[in-house]
Structure formats: C-alpha cells, structure tokens
Amino acid sequence: MFGFFNKVASISVKELQEKINEPLTLLDVRTPNEYRSGHIKKAKNIPLNKVNSYKGNSNDLIYVICQSGMRSKKAAKVLQKNGFKVVNVRGGMSQWTGQIQGGK
Known about the structure:
Blueprint: E1 9-12, H1 13-19, E2 25-28, H2 32-36, E3 44-45, E4 61-65, H3 70-81, E5 85-90, H4 92-95
C-alpha cells in the first residue's frame, strides 16, 4: 500500500473521527494562527513549510490535516518521500464536526 510512487492514501474526516480515540499521530499543517484558532486536541502543529524537517517515528502511521485537504496532501507527499507512512485527511478542518480546542 505504501510505495515510493504510490499516491498518498486518504481518509475522510468522518473516518478520522471514528479513529480519534485510538492512539494516533495527527499533524496539522496549517499556519500557527490557523491552528490556534481551533484544532483537534491530538493534533501537533507542523506548518507545511516546516514539514520537510519533521522528525517523527518512521514506523508510525501519520495522519495529516489542514483546512481543506490541499496543503495536507502536499505535506503527505513530502512526508511519504521522506519515508513516512502517511494518510491525508480529505476535507480538512472545514469539514471536521468533532471537538476542537483553541490555543497552543
């Protein structure tokens, strides 16, 4: 499923919502201001322009979210190229209906 030339796997916001109580790695690639205005509690803010320097566990499956799904798709491709197993969240925060929190 995860190959060098494969397209990035993706799930819907609804599918993420079903997994959110499991242990998972979720990166929010929006700007720090967007992140502070409301994010999923488990999400770690790594803005798109810094995603290339992300140093996570390469064995973990990483979910990537942004506002609409466009930046997260770009970020997912970068992460995948860097050897991470990645899933893009289609629809992003604009379709997220679960709980969010503000601040850092």
